[in-house]
Design brief:
The chain has about 200 residues and is an alpha/beta fold. The chain is about 30% helix and about 25% strand. It has one domain: Maf protein. A 7-stranded mixed β-sheet has the order 2-1-3-4-5-6-7. Strand 4 and strand 5 form a beta hairpin. The chain is globular and about 55 Å long.
């Protein structure tokens, strides 16, 4: 049984593949949009992470007739009243680079003291199966921290806000976490873990 991981972001796709690795041993094959030659994306018109995750999952499930997982998430900065939130990857438009997003974030917080720079990563995963009466399920997770005053030393391409994010639990830049710390803290992997039992119940019954 094929399960579509519906993202064009290479770094995000790799994280989701890592999270869903246990499904492979359960005779579920993970496929990506690139594997299927799909280049388009639906317009993200939702007003919440859940609405956008659902919109994307249902769009690609209908397009491919495959069970599909899509996600939507971003960073909410308290001093900016929750911005950029659902607009995290489009804060400066669809073509903005990681560097531009990082510099813009720093500029918006230029006069904000350290104790007021709290922020939260949030993620919603949405699963839908068009082959089973559009069976669906969703999961959510978050990670608390703060925005540093300068970029960290190990910025990972595709995740601009992580380059500025200090994880509360470890007092480290997100990109400086060890492999084990990353697995323990990663909000996307936590959401995956919550969703896996529902996918197994649906596809392996």
């Amino acid at each position: 049984m094929d399960l579509l991981i519906a993202t064009h972001n290479p770094a995000k796709k790799q994280e989701l593949r890592t999270g869903f690795a246990s499904l492979i041993s359960s005779k579920i094959n993970l496929v990506s949009l690139n594997d299927l030659g799909i280049t388009e994306d639906p317009e993200e018109t939702g007003k919440t992470f859940l609405e956008n995750a659902q919109l994307k999952a249902e769009y690609f499930a209908k397009l491919t007739n495959l069970p599909t997982v899509a996600d939507d998430g971003g960073i909410e900065i308290d001093a900016l009243n929750g911005e950029p939130g659902i607009h995290s990857k489009r804060w400066l438009g669809k073509t903005a680079s990681d560097s531009e997003l990082i510099q813009y974030t720093l500029s918006r917080l230029a006069n904000t003291p350290p104790e007021k720079r709290t922020a939260h990563f949030r993620i919603v995963l949405y699963y839908v199966n068009p082959l089973h009466d559009n069976f669906f399920s969703s999961s959510t997770a978050s990670l608390d921290g703060s925005i540093a005053s300068h970029i960290g030393p190990r910025a990972l391409r595709g995740f601009p806000y992580r380059a500025l994010f200090i994880v509360d639990k470890y007092k480290k830049y997100y990109d400086e976490l060890t492999e084990q710390e990353h697995r323990d803290a990663n909000h996307r992997l936590k959401a995956v873990e919550k969703l896996i039992p529902f996918i197994k119940e649906d596809l392996l019954q």
